[in-house]
């Protein structure tokens, strides 16, 4: 009787008598990876303030991922695919210590998989431990204003274009038109701006609201912004606004702003471009750091 009961339990696979336990999938890892503390001085000049991240899926070198002179705070944000302020409880040193990472990426790996590989590398080499919390964040939606769009279709090049500047070269001081806006060649995607006497003047060529969104986010202190215009362009346009009251404004700009009054950013967007920023909130994941070693284990 006991033999028959045992056979029945095995046959129907009840939880208290499993036929076998499924193996957990192996964690995604790089084929080979090297991690070391970066030198205090940058490896070259000019060098982006946050360091360089090159290669990986979607790049010209998908099989090789390289982090050069990169802050740990940026490494964490990139590995989890979140903004910098979505890494919580991180040690102060993550914004001070830089690292060099070189990794071989398995063929066919996606960007999401590479991010998971980087998380696992941080767990292995820095003993990263974390948990996830949900928090409210402010967000701006970029929309077309009720008065209608005021962007103009991009003009074609009016002649042969000179060679484009090489990546990594310093931007030249722009030539300004009679109204103080940078003069940019028609027919080439570009954007440049100047700030004088507390007024910022921007010129965009062959651009879309997506490029504008990036500038607006920086101007508003790294605010989150979603392009809901549905517009792809390309467009040529200019934008002029006062920096008075903007986050991160230089003290010199603040002192001079009264000498040349201008519209605030929100008013300028609507009157000059026919676009509008609408503020709302959204819940996002925050990666809370429970533990992270300052020094990586040896290669």
What's the shape?
Answer: globular
Which blocks of ≥5 consecutive residues have pLDDT under 50?
1-17, 248-258
Helical stretch tally: 6
* Overall average residue pLDDT: 87
Number of strands: 12
Order of helices and strands: HEEEHEEHEEEEHEEHHE
Strand content: 25-35%
How many strands, which pairing sense, and closed or not: the largest β-sheet? 4 strands, antiparallel
Instruction: Please report the distance between the alpha carbons of the first and last residues.
Output: 60 Å
Strand line-up in the sheet with most strands: 1-5-3-2
Helix % is 10-25%
Structural class label: alpha+beta
Number of domains: 2
Radius of gyration equals: 26 Å
Tags for this entry?
299 residues; alpha+beta; four-stranded antiparallel sheet; four-stranded mixed sheet; 6 helices; 21% helix; 30% strand; disordered N terminus
